[in-house]
Write a structure and sequence with these properties.
Elements lengths: L9 E4 L5 H11 L3 E6 L24 H5 L5 E4 L7 H11 L2 E4 L5 H4 L4 H7 L4 E6 L14 H7 L2 H4 L14 H24 L3 E6 H6 L3 H10 L16 E6 L4 E6 L3 H10 L14 H6 L1 H12 L4 H11 L3 E3 L3 H5 L2 H6 L3 E5 L3 E5 L24 H8 L4 H9 L5
Parallel strand pairs: 1-2, 1-4, 2-3, 4-5, 5-6
Antiparallel strand pairs: 7-8, 8-9, 10-11
Helix pairs in contact: 1-8, 6-8
C-alpha cells in the first residue's frame, strides 16, 4: 500500500467538539497515529449531538461525532482523577504533537498547559484552539462556533435587510478554522525538522473567521464603508440569488456578473420581451430594479426542473447550479466519480458513510483507515501496545477509575 504523507507522526488529541477534532482528522487521514483522548465522566458534547443511528441517542451513535473522528484510536482518561496527570504525561512523552481545545485555563488546572509541558518536553508542537485566543480581556469566554459566527459578524451580514439575523449553517468558525490550524501544525513540524525547536500555536476561532470577511473589513477601515446585510444579493452582480424551481423546495442559484452573462440568461429564457427593456440593459439599471427582475426570473424558473435548468444555463454560459440537499449530495455523480463518500464499519453504528478527504496528494494519497472509535474502544491496544503500559499497570489504573 502506498505510503502516506504523515506516517510515523504521533499525535495526542485532547481536543473536543469541532475545530480540534477536525484538525487532527486531517493528520490521521494522512497517516499520523492519532490518539483521541476522552472521558465518559464528561463526554465530548459532539457525541451527544444528532443525527443518531436509527434515531436512538447514545455516546457511540452520533454520526456527527463519527464524521469528525475517522482514522483515530479512541482511549479514555479521566483528567479530573488525581492520578491522570502521570498517564497524560506518558501519552505526551510519546507524541510529536499535542492539541487541546478547552477554554483557556483548563489545561493549566490539570498541569498540562504549554508552560508546564515545555519544561520537560521543549520539542513538543502544542496546538491550543479556542473561541477568542489564549490572551485578552475576553479570552476566558466559553462557547461554540455558533456564537463565534455571530460574534465575528456573519449572522448580521448573511441575513436580509428586513429580517433578524440568519447566519450561515452550523458552527461556521468550527468549519473554517481547521484549515488554518492544520497548516500551522505542518509549518511547525517543518520548523522543528530544520531547527529542533518546538512551538506553541494559539489559534483564535474569531480571528480565523475574520479572514473570510477581509474585503469588507478593509473597506470599513480604509473607506468608512459599512457592510450591510443584503440576503443573497451581491453589489457586483445582478441577478444574484436562489430561484424556485418545480418540485418541493427545489431551487437553483443564478449569478450574472457581466452584461454578457445577462444576455446569455436572456437567451436561455427564450428572450422574453421584458428582458430587452432599457432598465435591464446595464448592471446599474438591473440593480435599481432588482425586485422586479427577480420576480420575472422566478416566474420562469419555477416551471423548470432544477437539474435540467442548471445544464441549460451552463450550456449558455450562465453561472448557475442546483441548491442541493444532503440526499442530493449522496447521489451526486461528480462526488461519486471522485469517491468522496467512504463507507466504513463502525462498531456500534454499523456500516456508515464518512466524508472523504477534500484534497488528493498524487504521491502520498491519504485515506480513511478506520471508522471513528467508540469511547475508549482502543484502550487495551493503545495503553499496552502503543504506550507500553504493563498488564499490571493497565489493570490497576483501570480498576482505580483513572481510565474512565
Amino acid at each position: 500500500m502506498t505510503q502516506q504523507a504523515l506516517e510515523g507522526l504521533k499525535v495526542a488529541d485532547f481536543t473536543w467538539v469541532g475545530v480540534g477534532p477536525v484538525t487532527m482528522k486531517y493528520l490521521a487521514d494522512h497517516g499520523a497515529t492519532v490518539l483521541r483522548i476522552e472521558s465518559a465522566v464528561r463526554p465530548d458534547n459532539l457525541r451527544l449531538a444528532p443525527p443518531f443511528k436509527d434515531g436512538v441517542s447514545g455516546l457511540n451513535r452520533s454520526g456527527f461525532f463519527a464524521d469528525y473522528n475517522s482514522s483515530k484510536y479512541g482511549i479514555s482518561l479521566n483528567l479530573d482523577h488525581p492520578r491522570s496527570r502521570e498517564v497524560a504525561q506518558r501519552i505526551i512523552a510519546w507524541a510529536d504533537v499535542m492539541a487541546e481545545s478547552f477554554t483557556p485555563g483548563v489545561m493549566a488546572r490539570w498541569g498540562l498547559d504549554y508552560a508546564s509541558v515545555c519544561r520537560w518536553k521543549p520539542e513538543v508542537i502544542y496546538l491550543s484552539t479556542c473561541q477568542l485566543g489564549q490572551t485578552g480581556p475576553w479570552a476566558g469566554q466559553p462557547g461554540y462556533g455558533l456564537q463565534l459566527a455571530a460574534f465575528s459578524g456573519f449572522y448580521y451580514l448573511t441575513s436580509w435587510p428586513d429580517r433578524g439575523p440568519a447566519g450561515p449553517y452550523g458552527a461556521y468558525t468550527d468549519f473554517v478554522s481547521p484549515m488554518f490550524a492544520a497548516a500551522a501544525v505542518l509549518a511547525a513540524l517543518d520548523h522543528r525538522r530544520r531547527t529542533g525547536q518546538g512551538a506553541y500555536l494559539d489559534l483564535s476561532q474569531l480571528e480565523a473567521g475574520l479572514q473570510f470577511l477581509a474585503p469588507l473589513l478593509m473597506d470599513e477601515l480604509n473607506n468608512g464603508v459599512e457592510a450591510r446585510p443584503a440576503g443573497n444579493r451581491d453589489p457586483q452582480a445582478c441577478p444574484h440569488g436562489a430561484f424556485p424551481c418545480c418540485g418541493n423546495d427545489r431551487w437553483a442559484a443564478i449569478a450574472c456578473f457581466t452584461d454578457a452573462q445577462w444576455e446569455a440568461l436572456c437567451r436561455a429564457m427564450g428572450s422574453p420581451a421584458w428582458s430587452s427593456s432599457p432598465e435591464f440593459a446595464t448592471l446599474t439599471g438591473r440593480k435599481a430594479h432588482e425586485d422586479a427582475l427577480e420576480e420575472r426570473i422566478a416566474a420562469w424558473t419555477k416551471e423548470q426542473d432544477a437539474y435540467e435548468l442548471m445544464a441549460h444555463l451552463q450550456r449558455e454560459g450562465v453561472p448557475g447550479g442546483v441548491v442541493q440537499s444532503c440526499e442530493d449530495l449522496f447521489n451526486d455523480p461528480q462526488l461519486a466519480h471522485r469517491g468522496h463518500f467512504v463507507r466504513l464499519q463502525h462498531t456500534e453504528i454499523g456500516l456508515h458513510s464518512y466524508s472523504g478527504i477534500p484534497f488528493q496528494l498524487s504521491e502520498t494519497p491519504g485515506r480513511l483507515s478506520k471508522a471513528a472509535p467508540c469511547l475508549g474502544e482502543d484502550n487495551d491496544y493503545v495503553y499496552k501496545t502503543v504506550l507500553g503500559f504493563s498488564e499490571a499497570e493497565y489493570a490497576e489504573l483501570k480498576a482505580a477509575g483513572v481510565l474512565a
